[in-house]
Specification:
21% of the residues lie in helices and 52% in strands. By secondary structure, it is α+β, with helices and mostly antiparallel strands. The chain has a single domain, classed as Lipocalin, CATH 2.40.128. Strands 4-3-2-1-9-8-7-6-5 form a 9-stranded antiparallel β-sheet, with no helix packed on it. The radius of gyration is 19 Å and the shape is globular. This is DUF2147 domain-containing protein. Keywords: Signal.
Length: 133
Amino acid sequence: MRNFKTVILASLFGLFSVGAGSAQDMSPEGIWQPANKESRYKITFCGEDNTKLCGLVHWIQPEHQNADNKQLLGTYLFSELPQRAENKWRGKITLRGHTIRGNVTQLSPNKLKVDACMLIWCEEVTLDKFSDL
């Protein structure tokens, strides 16, 4: 019975250790893309103290470029968002030409959610990590 308890405790400790390591591995920095893979965003830490979050429109698939979205290349989807909680930043986000309050939440090491609402209109985009910086 004593060996069984030792195995259970060791297993639980191992699970918690893996979870803690995964949380430390989470970084929003990298190149991210939505599921349709039509665009990519370069997300970095920024600001004077390098703790805020910036997201730049990095790439748009050539066959999906048009006069409107081509102008977005090199512009910020969001800039200098302050961190509000662990893995969560809140501030002004530009979606479809409108600058509104929104959130960037890192769901896992390879998944980010960007969401924003204006009156009754809300937009949510999940981004997958394309590459590290």
